[in-house]
Every structure is written in C-alpha cells, then in structure tokens.
Prior knowledge:
By secondary structure, this protein is α+β, with helices and mostly antiparallel strands. Helix content is 16%, strand content 35%. It has 2 domains: 36-216, Cathepsin D, subunit A, domain 1; 233-416, Acid Proteases (Cathepsin D, subunit A, domain 1, Beta Barrel). The radius of gyration is 25 Å and the shape is globular.
Amino acid sequence: MAVFSLRFMLFSSLLLNFLLNLASLSDAKQSFRPKALVLPISKDASTLQYLTTINQRTPRVSLNVVLDLGGQSLWVDCEQGYNSSSYRPARCHSSRCSLAKSNSCSGTNTCGVIVDNTVTGTATTGDLGDDVVSIQSPDGSNPGRVVTVSHFLFACAPTFILKGLASTAKGMAGLGRTRISLPSQFSAAFSFHKKFAICLSSSTSASYNGVLFFGAGPYKFLPNVDVSTNNLVYTKLYINPVSTASAYTSGDASSEYFIGVKSIKVQDKAVSLNTSLLSIQSSTGYGGTKISTVDPYTVMETSIYKAVTKAFIKAAASRNITRVGAVSPFGVCFDLKTVHGTRLGASVPTIDLVMESESVKWSIYGANSMVQVNNEVICLGFLDGGSNPRTSIVIGGYQLEDNLLQFDLANSKLGFSYSLLGYQTTCSNFNFTSTA
C-alpha cells in the first residue's frame, strides 16, 4: 500500500510539473511580442510597380497589394469575393472612425474613408472595417514566428479603382504619415519603435525579393551584412502642410515623406537652380522634394531637369561618353559601348542631392541613375515633370533600388544607406527561404 501511494504521489508530481510546463509554454506563446516585422517586396516587370503580400481574413487569404510609401492606409477590393468570418465594419462615430479621420457615414451605419489609387491619381470612397492580418517577424537574418493582428483597419474599395495597378494586385498598402497606415498600426499592436525601413530590389525575378521591415534594426543581409545605424546617413523629414493626395479634406496635411534638398551637384559641381522650387510653399503645398514608390523614375520640374541634364551631358562628354538619340520616356541617352561598368553600375558622373550640409548628401551612382533600354543604348533615368508640378522633385523607385531607407516617424528623420552594391550585397539578399 505504501509502495502504491509513493508511486501515485510520484506520478501526480510528474503530471503536475508537465501541466505547469505546458501552461508556461502556452503563456509564452501568447505573450510573445516581436521587436520587428518583415514583408517581401517584389517588382512587377510590366508596370514597374512594387508589390508586397498581405495575409488577411478568416480563412486566411494572401493578397498582392501595390506598395505606396506615402499612402494613407491599406485598401483592398471587396467587391470580388471578400469572405471572412472575422471582418467587422467600423460603425459610424466609433473610435475606429475617429482614428481614420472619417467624415462620412453610409446608410449601413459604416463610416467611409478616401481610397486613393496614387498610380492613376483616381480616388473614391470605401467602407472602413477591420480584419485579421498575419505577418512574419524576423529572427536576425532569417524569417521567424508568424504573429497576428486581430483587428487591422483597412478600407473596402470597389473593383474599378484597381485600374492601372499590376494585374495581380488587389489593392494598395499605404506606409504614410497617418494613424491607420501599416507602420502606425503594427507599431501600436506590438508596442515597438515607430520606424520602418524599405529596401527595393532591382530585379523583377520572383526569386529576388526586396524587403520591408517594421520596427528598428538590425537589418541583416547575406553574406552577413548588417546595414544598421552606423551605416546610415540621417536627414530631417518634413511635413507638407497641404495634402498631396488625389482627394482630401481641406486642412489635411500630406501623408507623404518630404526631405529638404538644398542643392544638386553633378560630379561634385553645383548645378545652378531656382532654389525657391526646392522649398515647400506653406500656403499651397507646392514645391519641395518627396520620395515615392509609385513613380518608377525620378521626376523633376522642367527648369531643374534641364539644368541637371545639361550638367550631366557635359560631365559625361568629358569622359568620352557619346550621346545618342532619346528613347522614350527618357530624354538623355548614350551609346552603351562608350560606358564602362563598375561595382556601382555604369561609370558615369555622380549626382548628389545635398541636404542640410555638404556632408549630408544622397549620392546617386550609375546603378541608380542609368537605365539600359536595349543592347546599344543606356539612358539617364530622370524624367521632365513639366513647368508647374505639384512637387518639384519626386525621387522615384529606380533611384531607391538597392538602397536601404529607414523612416523614423517618432523623430521625423530619414536614415539612408549609400548603394548596398558598395557593401557587396543587394536588397534581395534578405533570407526569406528558411525559417528560424
């Protein structure tokens, strides 16, 4: 009898320990808070748009959405087969509507928000709601655990607003300065730093994705390259007091990201410019320099474009680079045979965007300035934006590729690397193929 009791007590003790350990593991799983999150970025060969994949709904559906750096929110097409048991409409006058700055209410007691296709400049109204979103957390230089946001706010859009987007796209993912953009919602959900970083790949191959980080670094790329704080140059981010969206409410500030370019140099020589165009006019919101992922190439106001290209052509001629006829949409092209290659792309004059001081400059080397259009011609990847554009300089996606850009929203500053080609890596070298 004593032996039976002893065995029973021993068994009970082991069972209790097992259950406690199981509960502890369950609690640890539930209480896991990632320090950062990560999404892949692909480049569509047809439209040159950058896309990411959002895992949404119950049951889960993977959606391709066009990445919009200055976009206000996540919006998706809800007219074509939106089925989810976890979807919740945002009722009029609720806190969710206030967060989204909604000022309209539908007959179904759902608040409406602006849905903006920034590729085509088309806008409409969509219903605000929330649903489950799943996203991966990074573990060093690898993908880690998948985590879930149960009530992620987004806008339901009609199908017609997809026109002009990549054929696989079901909406757009906004990373802009709003309280319902992806960076704001993810940082609020997991209480991490209100920062995000983008690294766009120059490749259109499905095997070579760029990467989008939410949260602070490290930002690790193969082979063991950490593009962290020490490798970034910082400059101030500016807020345009007038919205640059296709449709907006009077008094709204822009959700896009502006930087303070003070001058432009070509091969270390300052270009003569009308510098008033480089500042944002507080009354109209015109002028200034913004960063865009929906513009495939950098676009400049006509007088700036002419001054920069004139200086570039002169500097290229001094290197015996032969100019040839323009190839649309580019205005300045060269004979490829007269251009040598380097680790940083074509050996051409460097273009520097100089900000608050001579030491804070964004240097654009051949890999980001020159576009090979065929086997014989290479062109300067800058476009003429006309004589009175909304924004004087729009830095486009091609100029961002293989450069890491960190947006620190809490401190309103941009950290940018020089071309990662100089570190002997690229934006496609984050390891998405293995799990921790």
